[in-house]
Amino acid sequence: MYDVNKIREDFPILTRKVYGKPLVYLDNGATTQKPHCVVDAMVDEYYNVNANVHRGVHFLSQKATDLHEASRETVRRFLNARSTNEILFTRGTTESINLLAFSFGEAFVKEGDELVVSEMEHHSDIVPWQMLCERKGAVLRVIPMTDEGLLRLDAFADLLNERTRIVCCTHVSNVLGTVNPVKDIIRLAHGHGVPVLIDGAQSTPHFSVDVQDLDCDFFAFSGHKVYGPTGVGVLYGKEEWLDRLPPYQGGGEMIKNVSFKKTTYNELPYKFEAGTPDYIATHALAKALDYVSSIGMANIYEHEQDLTRYALARMREVEGMRIFGPEEQHDAVISFLVGNIHHLDMGTLLDRLGIAVRTGHHCAEPLMHRLGIEGTVRASFGLYNTREEVDILVAGIQRVAQMFL
Ligand code: PMP
């Protein structure tokens, strides 16, 4: 039995008011709120354990190192990776993709090669690859989508050729809520011997991910979108790939021996982790992953699906409502416009009613160009949202719409 009211008690911020109105937080796609256990873990570690990890012989350093490395094991379990060697800590999805674009680019990309992204990517999964193309003289190819917001696998299959070096695709669109058929994409790419990166920023908070089952070569996600702290994220990579990639940044834990003649590099995963890691955040991320796992990703998925279906049905009652994304497969994200009301006006007026939504291009400008719009209003749900909050959202939208009649 999913007790959403009990779950809400774990999140102190949900009881606060904005402009005298109860907060209705529907901006979970941007970041999620934090449960007690996550914040408590950070405070406790700073107060009682704090010491730099890995190189210390003293008690606190060993304790902090144990917590940090235990967190790596928690992430491994969360993604069902084979080994903790395959779990790299980064600052977030964006840094994970930049790391890969740099290292993979150094090792495997040359002039005339092709890199594939999809039309619905977040800028974080476009720009690092464009920068790589500029450095190496490679070419960016784009998987198109249908008007409904589904990737065209037929066109994708046609894009793959002997020059293709990597395919990068989001698991779930942060604008449309589309859940992409990543298993098919991976199978098709592997048929050409091409590795695949999955951007899991919008899937990891909503349903369980098994990187071995997906058979993806790389997978990136952000801690702060899965109820964890800011400033920490993960790049998963198959060991056989990570072994062949050069380091991203130099210094700190990534070395084996340094001399002015030659430096040798550390083993996985440390080869990719230069400098002091945010070990407070990695520990708190593990707490967040334990938290969602204790509720059960399948239960979270069911709750959020119910909420999304309910919201879609209720929102369609509003005159002039235009919802973007496929009819089926909306994953806890609903982008919309009403009549010709500007998305910024809608967002600003909803805010005055205590409703937090996001407006604009959602860091997906090429997708906006494809849809022929400038931006949308986006409501995105988390494990603590309720049907009552959806009702407040719909009443708010209706109220704003009336003002523009
Ligand atoms: N990819 C997707 C699909 C996202 O939704 C986001 C965050 N909006 C990112 C990447 C970037 O995540 P971060 O800012 O945490 O690096």
- Major sheet: 7 strands, mixed
SSE-based structural type: alpha/beta
Shape: globular
Rg (CA only)? 22 Å
- The CATH architecture name of the largest domain reads 3-Layer(aba) Sandwich
Q: Count the beta strands.
A: 17
CATH topology of the largest domain: Aspartate Aminotransferase, domain 2
Percentage of β-strand residues: 15-25%
Mean pLDDT: 97
- CATH homology group of the largest domain: Type I PLP-dependent aspartate aminotransferase-like (Major domain)
Give the bound compounds: 4'-deoxy-4'-aminopyridoxal-5'-phosphate
Measured between the Cα atoms of the first and last residue, the distance is 43 Å
User: Would you state the CATH class of the largest domain?
Assistant: Alpha Beta
Number of helices: 14
Summarize the structure.
With 405 residues, this protein is an alpha/beta fold. The protein is built from 14 helices and 17 strands. The radius of gyration is 22 Å and the shape is globular.
